[in-house]
Design brief:
By secondary structure, the chain is of the alpha/beta class. It contains twelve helices and 13 strands. Helix 1 packs parallel to helix 2. The longest helix is centred in the first third of the chain and has 21 residues. It binds nicotinamide-adenine-dinucleotide (NAD). The site of nicotinamide-adenine-dinucleotide (NAD) has 28 residues, from helix 1, strand 2, helix 5 and strand 5.
Length: 331
């Protein structure tokens, strides 16, 4: 049994990760601000699934609160950290960039400082496929350039990667940066396409299909992603282990894509929802959104080498599980 600090534990991914850790016998300290970026009821309902576990301790606060993370590290001395708290969302970063500076830049800095004082065996942090920006070479590989983010969200996540690299190098902190690819599944985020599509189709309202449908995403099912995160927990990079397999020749730091490795056309994703619901979507074709990219696709060779890859739930099964949960939760 290990003590794992999970930030963003009332969030979509943080909730699933915390639950899986608790079910594997770990102790979880779950920090979340329960901010109002989207439904606080959904966050409270997720957390309510975790609180009956005796290994779970909920802490409500912001990662950027000065001294909060330091005091949590001092009290609990976590063996591992899974940092998922962040201001997420490409579109909202155009409207409210300051939220990204506070949560993603200042918050990650506070976390790194706490880890410097009380070093865990392994820190894992969420980055995003958005760091690949305008890259057109597919699939996206961890060794591709990531210097040209197209949104401020991506810029803060890229900054987190390089901030973490400097701490990994200076203080020999083993750090893994996950680059997640469009994650969906039960308890998913209401600001993301699977929710927006399912909700609108059920209500008989039109759905917005951006870039006139010429989009593809490497949709990753939540259970497959969680298996990857838990698998990597015991694979802390060492300075020598990363040599040659990542961007870093010296620091115990690596970036790892976690994606399905098979991009799906947006139109096919919508069709899978339509089939599951037995309803047809009214599609409103729209231009490309600022800050967005037309395609994502994870090169999954590195995670294959590290842990043998992640499970790949077939799209139809994943959509069925998601839509089934949606119907029962929002009934
Ligand atoms: N879901 C995806 O497809 C996806 C893709 C790429 C990267 N990511 C990244 O993965 C992580 C988790 O994403 P998610 O989809 O679960 O998002 P989420 O918004 O559901 O979860 C984030 C959680 O962090 C909390 N939070 C936000 N700001 C905070 C702060 N300042 N202090 C403490 N808690 C705070 C929120 O209340 C929320 O519960 C994020 O870092 C996100 O950027 C997600």
């Amino acid at each position: 049994m290990q003590t794992i600090l999970v930030t963003g534990s009332a969030g979509f991914i943080g909730f699933h990760v915390s639950r899986a850790l608790l079910e594997s016998g770990h102790r979880v300290i779950g920090l979340d601000s329960h901010n109002d970026y989207y439904s606080q009821t959904l966050k409270a309902d997720r957390e309510a699934q975790l609180t009956p576990h005796k290994g779970f301790t909920a802490v409500h606060g912001k990662v950027e609160d000065p001294g909060l993370l330091m005091s949590l590290f001092e009290e609990y001395r976590p063996d591992g950290v899974i940092h998922l708290a962040a201001q997420a969302g490409v579109r909202y970063s155009i409207e409210n960039p300051r939220a990204y500076v506070e949560a993603n830049l200042v918050g990650t800095f506070e976390l790194l400082e706490a880890a410097r004082a009380f070093p865990p065996q392994h820190m894992m942090m969420a980055s995003t496929s958005s760091v690949y920006g305008a890259n057109t070479k597919m699939p996206y590989s961890e060794t591709d350039k990531t210097e040209a983010p197209l949104s401020f969200y991506a810029a803060t996540k890229k900054s987190n990667e390089v901030m973490a690299h400097s701490y990994a190098h200076l203080f020999k902190l083993p750090i893994t940066m996950f680059r997640f690819f469009t994650v969906f599944g039960p308890w998913g985020r209401p600001d993301m396409a699977p929710h927006l599509f399912t909700d609108a189709i059920l209500k008989g309202e039109p759905i917005k299909v951006f870039n006139h449908g010429d989009m593809q995403r490497d949709f990753t099912y939540i259970d497959d992603l969680v298996a990857g995160i838990l698998g990597l927990l015991q694979q802390a990079p060492t300075a020598s282990a990363v040599e040659g397999d990542s961007l870093s020749p010296v620091a115990p730091w690596r970036a790892v894509n976690i994606g399905n490795g098979a991009p799906v056309k947006l139109i096919d994703f919508i069709s899978a929802i339509e089939t599951t619901l037995g309803l047809e979507a009214q599609k409103r074709m729209m231009p490309m959104q600022p800050g967005d990219v037309s395609a994502t696709w994870a090169d999954d060779n590195l995670i294959g080498q590290l842990i043998g890859g992640i499970p790949k739930t077939p799209l139809a099964d994943a959509v069925e599980a998601y839509v089934g949960w949606f119907g029962s939760y929002y009934a």
